[in-house]
């Protein structure tokens, strides 16, 4: 599948999709509390998405049964919301969400601490976010795709964390997952040349322990093999002639 370069009109639509998704994440982050069910998180997320006349990207995507992926503690990604699963003081909760606005997707993820969390969990969440910003230093026209991958992986490993290798970021546009795939670790080749107008979902998934993961019997939920904590941070990114533009995050002071 070729990598699509978006037109100015497509970029305008994706920018709005990203703006709405940032609101969704901000509202969900404020709503979390100990004792909330993961299903309640999902229902609130879908309600907010639809209030902006958008469609949840994830609902029924390849059979996924919810609008928000809610992954708790050692769950890396794709946790399925449940009315029987409660988030608790000390948990870390990763929320992955996407919206479709007039046919165009945005995709972003955040990890939140519930109440007081351990110092190790705080550091994991912080470093995972920092990995993203280390990576997008290289998300510039004229650089190569795997410059981003290498920067993410080096930063995480330099701080003693494991970088998930079985899952990766991706292109995004009229489909939720477009070419190219974007690993979060160093490759032995350069990858494609980045061009203005490309749109990428860059998403470090970082573990306190090793990088190995397993899939649960639901065929969706990915967990760390050693049951260590995992965090996830993602934004939809536009490559421009002047560097990266974050479509799902307003505060770009770290670029």
Summarize the structure.
The protein is an alpha+beta fold and 255 residues long. It has four helices and 15 strands.
At CATH level 2, the architecture is Alpha-Beta Complex
Average predicted local confidence, pLDDT? 97
User: Which ranges are low-confidence, i.e. pLDDT below 50, for 5 or more consecutive residues?
Assistant: none
Q: Compute the gyration radius: what is it?
A: 17 Å
Regarding CATH, which class? Alpha Beta
State the distance separating the first and last CA atoms.
30 Å
**Tally of DSSP β-strands:** 15
Strand-pairing-aware structural class: alpha+beta
What count of domains describes the coordinates?
1
Please give a structural write-up.
With 255 residues, the protein is α+β, with helices and mostly antiparallel strands. It contains 4 helices and 15 strands. The model has no long low-confidence stretch (mean pLDDT 97).
What is the topological layout?
Layout (H helix, E strand, L loop, with lengths): L7 H24 L6 H14 L3 E2 L11 E5 L2 E3 L14 E10 L2 E10 L5 H18 L8 H14 L3 E2 L5 E3 L6 E5 L16 E4 L2 E3 L5 E3 L6 E3 L5 E3 L2 E6 L2 E4 L9
Characteristics of this structure?
Creatine Amidinohydrolase; globular
């Amino acid at each position: 599948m070729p990598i699509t370069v978006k037109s100015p009109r497509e970029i305008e639509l994706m920018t709005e999709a990203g703006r709405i998704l940032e609101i969704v994440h901000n509202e969900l982050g404020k709503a979390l509390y100990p004792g909330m069910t993961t299903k309640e998180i999902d229902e609130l997320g879908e309600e907010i998405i639809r209030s902006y006349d958008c469609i949840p990207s994830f609902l029924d995507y390849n059979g996924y049964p919810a609008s928000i992926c809610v992954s708790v503690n050692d769950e890396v990604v794709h946790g399925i919301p449940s009315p029987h699963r409660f988030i608790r003081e000390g948990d870390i909760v990763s929320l992955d969400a996407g919206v479709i606005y007039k046919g165009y997707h945005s995709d972003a993820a955040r990890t939140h601490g519930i109440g007081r969390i351990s110092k190790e969990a705080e550091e994991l969440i912080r470093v995972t976010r920092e990995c993203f910003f280390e990576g997008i230093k290289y998300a510039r026209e004229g650089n190569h795709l795997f410059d981003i991958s290498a920067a993410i992986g080096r930063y995480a490993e330099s701080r003693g964390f494991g970088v998930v290798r079985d899952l990766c970021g991706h292109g995004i546009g009229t489909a939720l997952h477009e070419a190219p795939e974007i690993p979060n670790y160093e490759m032995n080749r350069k990858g494609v040349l980045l061009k203005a107008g490309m749109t990428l979902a860059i998403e470090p998934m970082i573990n306190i322990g090793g990088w190995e993961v397993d899939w649960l019997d639901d065929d969706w939920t990915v967990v760390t093999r050693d049951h260590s904590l995992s965090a996830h941070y993602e934004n939809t990114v536009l490559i421009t002639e002047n560097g990266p533009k974050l479509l799902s995050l307003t505060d770009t002071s770290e670029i």
